[in-house]
Design brief:
single chain, alpha/beta, TIM Barrel, eight-stranded parallel sheet, binds D-xylitol-5-phosphate, binds zinc ion
Length: 221
């Protein structure tokens, strides 16, 4: 199981976006997290295909796209065509999430399923064969810079057990409120892909990135 830091560009300075993504890449990161928000499934609007397309042209990072949008099946192919390496959709945003996951995989893209804090892990029953990653929201989606919800620790443990029981190597990603103070908790609970926005992009990016990567790599030995 590979451990990764997936910095969320939602917290980047968009006037310096390209430069900041280069700093993250030069600091040893391999993934980059795109928090796409539609103002309907979540209260905020963020960015979409034009940003992804230009970032794709200029980086070799693995582009980890998180669709916090209603009816994501409408845009899956477009995001793939713009350069997504992984597309994660919310179970709460789909009438039937299984065909959406199957469409993502049929494109040759990794498929992820995301659960909001109030969504029980049991909703994953019968779906783990369709995914390459489970994303557990550790804040209520919509904004960067929120505090980690401690009740999510037990949920991370439970989903990691479900993944182990299904016998497939599925990544477990966590997103929201992850920083130097909470990263040990989520790694020990079983997360192996760490989304961090404000903990990476607020201040000295290389220093913050290196600090989180050092912590993550200490778990992957
Ligand atoms: C949903 C977003 C945020 C963001 C992470 O609100 O998905 O969780 O990526 O932001 P931080 O790391 O600042 O909590
Ligand atoms: Zn996200």
């Amino acid at each position: 199981m590979k451990y990764q830091l997936s910095p969320s560009i939602l917290s980047a300075d968009f006037w310096q976006l390209g430069k900041q993504i280069q700093e993250v890449e030069q600091s040893g990161c391999e993934w980059l997290h795109f928090d796409v928000m539609d103002g309907s499934f979540v209260p905020s609007l963020s960015f979409g295909m034009p940003v992804l397309k230009d970032v794709r042209k200029n980086t070799k990072l693995f582009l980890d796209v998180h669709l916090m949008i209603e009816k994501p099946q409408r845009y899956v192919k477009e995001f793939f065509d713009c350069g997504a390496d992984s597309i994660t959709v919310h179970v709460e945003a789909c009438e039937n999430v299984k065909p959406v996951l199957q469409e993502i995989r049929a494109l040759g893209c990794r498929a992820g399923i995301s659960l909001n804090p109030e969504t029980a892990p049991e909703c994953l029953e019968g779906l783990l064969d369709q995914v390459d990653m489970v994303l557990i929201m550790t804040v209520h989606p919509g904004f960067g810079g929120q505090a980690y919800i401690p009740e999510m620790t037990e949920k991370i443990r439970k989903v990691r057990r479900m993944i182990e029981d299904c016998g497939r190597s599925i990544d477990l990603e966590v997103d929201g409120g992850i920083n130097a103070g909470t990263i040990d908790t989520v790694l020990e609970a079983g997360a192996n892909i760490i989304v961090a926005g404000s903990a990476v992009f607020g201040g000295d990016i290389p220093q913050h990135t290196q600090g989180l990567l050092d912590k993550i790599h200490s778990y992957s030995v």
